[in-house]
Specification:
Blueprint: E1 9-12, H1 17-27, H2 31-39, H3 45-52, H4 56-59, H5 69-81, E2 86-89, H6 94-109, E3 115-117, H7 130-138, E4 143-147, H8 154-162, E5 166-170, E6 185-187, H9 207-224, H10 240-249, H11 256-268, H12 273-281, H13 290-307, H14 311-318, H15 322-354, E7 364-370, H16 377-388, E8 391-397, E9 402-408, H17 415-424, E10 430-433, E11 437-443, H18 447-457, E12 465-468, E13 470-472, H19 478-485, E14 500-513, E15 518-525, E16 531-536, H20 543-551, E17 557-566, E18 570-580
Parallel strand pairs: 1-12, 2-3, 2-4, 4-5, 5-6, 7-8, 13-14, 16-18
Antiparallel strand pairs: 8-9, 9-11, 10-11, 14-15, 14-17, 15-16, 17-18
Helix pairs in contact: 1-2, 5-9, 6-9, 6-10, 6-14, 7-8, 9-10, 10-11, 10-13, 12-14, 12-15, 13-14, 13-15, 14-15, 15-16
Amino acid sequence: MNISFFGKTWIFLDPDKEKLERIKLSCDIDDLVARILINRNVDTPEEVKNFLNPTLRNAIPDPSLLIDMDKGVQRVVKAINSNENIIIFGDYDADGITSSYIVIQYLRILGLQPKYYIPSRFSDGYGISSESIKLAISQNVELIIALDCGINSIEEIDEANKFGIDSVIIDHHVQLRKEVPNAAAVINPNRADQNEIEKSHIKKLCAAGVAFLFLIALQRELRNINFFPDKKEPNLRDFIDAVALGTLCDVMEIRGMNRAIIKYCLKSGRYSIGISSLMKAFNIPKINSTNDLLFFIGPAINAAGRVGDPHLALNLFLAENIDSADRIAMKLLELNEERKLMEKQLLAEVNLMINTLDLQSNNGICVFGNNWHEGILGIIAGRIKDKYKKASFVISFNKNGIGKGAARSVAGVNLANLLDIAKENNIIISGGGHALAGGFSIYKDKIDEFKTFINDNIQLTNQNIVEIDCSISAQCDINKLSETLSILEPFGKGIENPTVCIKRLKIRFIKKIGNGNHMSILFSDEFNKSNIRSVIFNTQSKKTLLDSIESNKDAILDIIGQINQNEQFGSSVIIEDIRISA
């Protein structure tokens, strides 16, 4: 068996031939496109047509199919009609910021002035806290609307109830308690008693997506009671860019409603004042793909909550004029650069630790230190996960021996379930999140028990296998191939950019690009009749691959990667792995 430079076994996917021919003929699509769709489990003519041409009308389900949606709408309508004192509690990440923004802005357009509070990850921690409730009490709040948090805040909601404060929870996190909070409404597609809604992929929505459904239902009810003749009716499509950003940054699956939202966002080119100001700050004249949102706009929004004040990001979206938004955008860029420097320094320290570990005998990777910056732990965990393809846990302990941890996972390892079990067994103090990302707290004297727990409860499957969609010829026109594959965009979780293989290539030359952080390699076929341009990004984390390339630069090689088309690199292959040709 031919093992790659990364020690992987390559598996070439081969879809059912009858299914392939049926989809090609009924949907009139290219053979390669049909193969990739089947590989992504989009494998009936109806699914293919809806996938390739998603519309908001067809993809967005009736919001009332969500449990408590109508109750929540009625409670907010009452607050609107009575001009009640409302406070919005959000989360400090991009999903929490965008979901908070669309609800606050909607209420403002109606003429209300809701208060809002985004907790600090350093002083408050995640979600609704007892301090948050005290704040609501002190400000004579009558209604709390919790966004991207609240599903497990039973005690906090009970405390609010004692003071006559109602709550509407709009969340998407997994329900970890047996009961839901005793709120006026708990709207969450991932509450234990909520069924999936056919074709919507409703359980894959981020909080901004759930909040958008809430606004659809709220607007419908306000129309029913004839609210708008004397008032401006908000245009819900103005919020779609924020929902798309929250969806991408929270790494939601790009299917159903999520896909329709993102596709509409990219096609319409309509962006709110916050995103527009960040585009200007980053010198992005036009958002061409999800990468622009994921790798530029999103990190700048998240930087506020990671190394600054999360209200800064929310105020960017709520800015009343361009000048104010532009000033905030530049401040967010500064914070993002500060975050990058801290990340680089901590990653170097963590990598030295990992070099001392026996990775072969560990199913997950756990590293910890004292007084690491809590705002970048999740990024470091993500970098480790990407490099070693294992669930990763990064913990920072304070002087009292209490650690804050961030976790990032790989397919097949559900962090929400894993952390819940650890909490039940008193290994961690608290924890929660999604399947692929989570946070937790732990006492320092529990660290050895936690590492043993990770190793015993993570089952590694197919960690050394790479699945490849197809082989393409070295004589293939990459420009045309990129154009053919563009029908599948936007790519993201669940609809990953296709992995292609090009066999029997020779290296013509290698050069460093991007301040030495990336590498460009020009390949040719073994007869020097064609050229294939390729790029390896973030070479500092790929020493094994680079060493193998240097040792085999005169060999005949196979490469796998994703087709990329952009202004900076042109048409190229983003290399994922290389092996010596058989």
